[in-house]
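>> received
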Amino acid sequence: MILVKEKNNFATPAADSDAWKETREEGSVRTYSAFTPARTTNKLFGPVVALEHEWIDIKSVKYYVWVKSGDQCIDITTDPTVHGTLFPDINMGDVTDTLNHGMDHVKATMSHTLDTIESNVNHQHLLTPSTLTFDWELDKSFMSVAVYQTAHFRYCDWYHRQFSGTKRHRMDNPTIDTSTRPSIRRALSSGHVQVDNPENAEPLISHISISNTSDETTSSSELATSGTESSSEPSDDSDV
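>> returned
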């Protein structure tokens, strides 16, 4: 499980704020590249500020791993087997070791099953200790891209709720055709956020827990992020 904590409670721009007025005057939703500020080494995880408004600022990114024991189900309400930190500092050694340990369990189960099916075949080679390696620096960079994509998603969601399909919006922008107005629902259903070049769009992944600094309010959200294959590179233009 990945737990992403924000420094502050997120709030959308207030009505009649400078960000609200500027967005209203623009009359259309900004693309990812038009909205997002430069992603530099000192702001990999925020604050992401656009339209003079802070959309996200990450405090920490931590990984929690549970290893199944015997036939018992994993209970994530119990203490994890290990945990590691990806941000602000990378400390993922225990996570790497435990993932290899978990893979050894998987291979042992496979060997036992195959021995039952093919008793005349030796499957001992499956029991070779796992030596998986992970490029956590690359993972950190991909996660950084996800943070900026999340900021854009929040902007799109706010724009849709404030301006799309409202009488005021249509009256102030009579040239906008209703069939071409931007909709965050299209972004959600297609599984990606809007970017200038669709070929560079990064896919979404599964649910990641995001919370603010208060232990009392923890919510589940979707963090738009890309895969972590070592042969890939982060898609947005950055210094990282």
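>> Strands lie at 2-6, 48-50, 53-56, 58-65, 82-87, 208-211, 218-221.
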